[in-house]
Amino acid sequence: MNPGMYISYNSIHSSQWTESLNELCHHLSQYNLESLIVDLAKINVMLSTDEDGNMRRRLVSHYLSPNIMARLQEFLNRPDLPTSKTTVFHKQQLLCLIKLAIMNCTPGTRINLTQRDHWQVGEICLKLNDTIRPELQVEETDTNDRLLLNLVRILPAYELGHKPCLWRRISRSYDLFIKEIPNIRITRTNICFDIAEWFKKCYNFSLDKWQAMVFAIYGVLTEHLYYPRIDIPCVGNLSNIFRNCAIDQATINSCISLLITDISSMRRQLLKQDTQYFYMDFNSFRGRPLLSVGSDVFTCLDIDFLVDKLYVGLFWEYHDSLGNEEKDLLHEAFGLAFDNYMESRFNQLFRDQGGQTITCGRIKKTNGEEVCDYLVCVNSTLFLFEFKTSPLNADAKYSYSVEKLRSDLDRKYVQNERGKAKAVRQLVNAIKYVGSEDGRELLSGKGIDLGGIKRIIPIIVTFDECLGLGLVRCYLDRKFWEHYEMVGCPQEIVVSELVLLTVEDVEVLESLHLSGRSLFQEIMDYLEYIGRNRISGFNDYLAQNYNQVEIPTNERLDNISRSLAESWREILFPGQS
């Protein structure tokens, strides 16, 4: 969600709100802290699974007074406003308010929020939308600066507002982190990175039991989302969730201790955080997504953070437990596992595309280097792929600094600090090589006659879903052509614009392929689309072209998630699946 699309208090009032953040915190302090946190968390959890926008509309009506609703409706009726892309409540705002409440407020005298109190909370949410808009000052020197200036505003909010399919993410993470990585052997070492083995050694119970218990908590919380009323709090009772399950109480307590914290402990942790990233640093919430709000009762701060604890969050906990050298090796193992995973996906996707299809995978030069991570020839088109697992660091994403974002993007996707070519430059080098005499000879030995190639399409596939923004593709495409012009690539072949896909995009392509769509044609259509819509990402193209047609489910990932859910139910309640 673009911060520019947030509806702010000032945008619907003729008089400007000028209160400070401290004054905003003072307003929060009049409410019972636990009750306020439960209310804010409830809105956030409900929005996380709001597929059709109906819940969002009902929440707005519930939390805004009739007076503000009238002003809001007048604002939304403006003919120049893209109403489909405006919002009052959003994850960044709600998590910020929870942070402010925990850090600055003490429990009040009221136990429950009245309707008028709810209206006050909604008004505070609107006011915070004015506060969290970054005011950026940068001297623009070129088009790249303008791209990055927009990107630093949008990227943090997009990462939070992006709504992936949670079960698809769980299935993918299971394939990568639990199945693929332990099978990777880095030749110069004997280290094997097995998260399940590490977890058992650390906590004295199996990873399967942990996942089953997180799954149970998720199920109880999401049940609340289907109630017709929105005044039911999204809280859980730990005793009720695990009543009559087959796991002993000591293990249950150990599991919960890895997920939950109390308000006092969370306050101490938040006060230690770097205030530079205040509006976007929610790592404390990611680490402990459940907050105790009473005896044996908790609320979930964010449903996505809870689900991420199953695999992705677990991977980063494992990562943080290692020494620096082992961390580097784990990243290397992750990269190799991702290469294997994506190669298997594209082997499937490029099968039976019509006409002659030659899939070559990882072709090596005579010196042992790979031409690129994956290469495929479909009729007269050559696809060159680079697969990347490198996420942007917090400093680049959350500091609202153009220079920090530029540096991290260039280092991980163009060229690192030691001058080693990364994704963009690797693709440029691959194009130069396949056009050389050595390259033509090598490809000929694999059954590819470069003389028949009319077009080359360079593609980056990234594991980092937040890089699916069209502005990221635009920036990397500009860097691609800067380097392309420097190295003197073959002129007789048409080279397309750079395509940037996330792993999530590939999974949607996999779904479309299984329903009869050609991956080759989808990419061609996307290139035509960005010719008219320069800053659109692949997910924008999908939304535009499939807005009336439901994207088919990904059968492979759905089968994994069903199998996992069944195994977790069996662990909790044997014989009752």
Could you characterize the architecture of this molecule?
The protein is of the alpha/beta class and 577 residues long. The protein is built from 26 helices and ten strands. The chain has helices spanning 21-28, 33-48, 54-63, 66-76, 91-104, 115-131, 143-161, 166-180, 195-203, 207-223, 238-241, 249-257, 263-271, 283-287, 303-308, 312-320, 324-349, 394-398, 402-413, 423-434, 437-445, 470-487, 503-514, 519-532, 538-545, 555-572, and strands spanning 235-237, 260-262, 290-294, 297-300, 357-361, 374-378, 381-388, 455-462, 494-495, 499-502. The strands form two sheets. Strands 5, 6, 7, 8, 9 and 10 form a six-stranded mixed beta sheet that branches. Strands 1-4-3-2 form a four-stranded mixed beta sheet, sandwiched between helices. A hairpin with a 2-residue loop joins strand 6 (374-378) and strand 7. Helix 20 crosses helix 22. The chain is globular and about 75 Å long. The model has no long low-confidence stretch (mean pLDDT 83).
Concise overview:
This protein is of the alpha/beta class and 577 residues long.
What are the main properties of this structure?
577 residues, alpha/beta, six-stranded mixed beta sheet, four-stranded mixed beta sheet, 26 helices, 10 strands, 8% strand, globular
